Amino acid sequence: MARVEFGETWVYESIVSALPGIDVSRRLAIAIQLGIFEVGVLLSAWYYDLWGAALAGTAAVFVAALGSVEMLRISSLVRSESLPHTYRQLLFGSSIEVVLGVLAYVALITQIFVFAPQRGGDSLLDTLIGPEPPVVVVYLILLVLWDVCYRIGTAWWASVVALWRSVRYRFDPRTARALRRSDLEIVAFATAQLVLYPFVADQPVIQTVILGHVAAVWGVSGLSAVLVTVRARDEAENRRESAAR
């Protein structure tokens, strides 16, 4: 993976780059992530005869891996342009995406182990792997769910910071195009998480949260893309008017 300065990387990138003696390409890092998790899902399904849950596990692994791809695409677009240090620092160096990911993860764990049982319904674990799940399978599920929640937190933070950037700064048309592409990557990033929606059909709370999250990212990132485009166009027109004078 290409070396970048710490403080200007996602936490995900920092962890991979910080591993001693390991220097792998982005594609290989994602392939390793996808392979390890997917092998774990398939081995668990085979050993414990949980093939009914294997498709849901594969979908979650896919979302986590695709999230890694989108994070790297977004970071490449941002780093390819000369942008205000404050924006880059907020996006990469604040680690707020981790905080948001933790909040999402804690909320999910609370829903699984407290909220759903208190309401008399089946929890997500009950639905996927039954009332007496193997410990190893629960460990793997919670690990993959954390990876997904981290990606959700990243999408939240990237969209909020993008909107702040589009309101706070103006950019030349070429830079605005790159930032607009970055905003649309964030939209794609969130949209991919809808893959999980069919697997929580018996969990209306989780379904509502997924839809609300995706809609919020669409709205915030979409507004950011519109603003960065319109404000760049206005700036270009102002320059032409100044030159004409």
Structural write-up:
The chain is mainly α and 245 residues long. It has one domain. 78% of the residues lie in helices and 0% in strands. It is built from nine helices and no strands. The protein has helices at residues 11-18, 26-48, 51-79, 85-93, 96-118, 124-129, 135-168, 173-191, 204-244. The N and C termini lie far apart (49 Å). The model has no long low-confidence stretch (mean pLDDT 84). The chain crosses the membrane at residues 54-78, 90-116, 136-164, 184-200, 206-230. Keywords: Membrane, Transmembrane, Transmembrane helix.
In brief, what are we looking at here?
The protein is an all-alpha fold and 245 residues long.
Integer-rounded radius of gyration: 20 Å
Helix content: over 70%
Mean pLDDT: 84
* Low-pLDDT windows of residues: none
- Number of strand elements: 0
Counted up, domains total 1
Order of helices and strands: HHHHHHHHH
Number of helices: 9
Shape designation = elongated
Question: Main beta sheet, described?
Answer: none
Terminal-residue CA separation: 49 Å
Seen as an oligomer or otherwise, the chain set is: single chain
Q: In percent terms, what proportion of residues is strand? A: under 5%
> Structural class of the helix and strand makeup?
mainly alpha
Keywords: Membrane, Transmembrane, Transmembrane helix
InterPro entries: DUF7530
SSE topology sketch:
Blueprint: H1 11-18, H2 26-48, H3 51-79, H4 85-93, H5 96-118, H6 124-129, H7 135-168, H8 173-191, H9 204-244
Transmembrane segments: 54-78, 90-116, 136-164, 184-200, 206-230
Keywords: Membrane, Transmembrane, Transmembrane helix
InterPro entries: DUF7530 (IPR055952)
